[in-house]
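Hi support team,

I'm filing this because I wasn't sure whether my run with S-adenosylmethionine finished correctly. The job status page said complete, but I'd like someone to confirm that the output block is well-formed before I use it downstream. Pasting the exact inputs I used:
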Amino acid sequence: MESNPTAAVINFNSIARRYDLINSVMSLDFVGSWHRRFIKNLKTSVELAAVSRALDVACGTGLSTECLARLLSTQTAKSARIQALDISELMIERARKRNLQNLDNIKVQFSLQDAFSIKCKDSSQDLVCISFGLRNLRDPARALGEFYRVLKNNGHLVILEFSEPYRGSSAIRKTLHEAHYVTASKPIRW
Ligand SMILES: C[S@@+](CC[C@H](N)C(=O)[O-])C[C@H]1O[C@@H](n2cnc3c(N)ncnc32)[C@H](O)[C@@H]1O
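And here is everything the job wrote out:
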């Protein structure tokens, strides 16, 4: 277990009910397109037909899990299992409300778990995904070690995360990034 996971739990429990709305407002409604692009990249870089066990770590309200489940259901004929985990029980409660039982070949299970002690055997997963979650983990390097432990040989780790504007970005892009960071991130305090 993480040494002090309480702060993350309190923070994310307190915004779980409004998380999707906050996410949409803070991202100027780009969040859907980021997830779509992530899925498109996943499709071209991972042989999804071979995936039978996948993890969505720090799944939040399950938007990332839903995107992954719908993609996998179209790419694999065999059955696959996605375990989606998060440390906030209210996030998991909301994620469970997504109607993902109707995907014939994909079984999705949401569970309350810590990214630092995933309840999976060593070398058991074909794919580990984490979307906008790595920066929220206290010790990202240790979490990466845990992902490595559960991944099979030749398994894939796929990370969707924010970054600073790259060197050479236009002044407008940098200004928008700064403005958004200052005005949108501060009150949320995550
Ligand atoms: C910004 S949200 C991302 C949610 C989702 N993946 C998405 O793309 O919308 C970050 C999530 O990380 C979770 N989290 C923070 N620390 C964690 C930990 N140690 N183990 C598992 N989840 C954690 C939070 O509860 C929160 O739901």
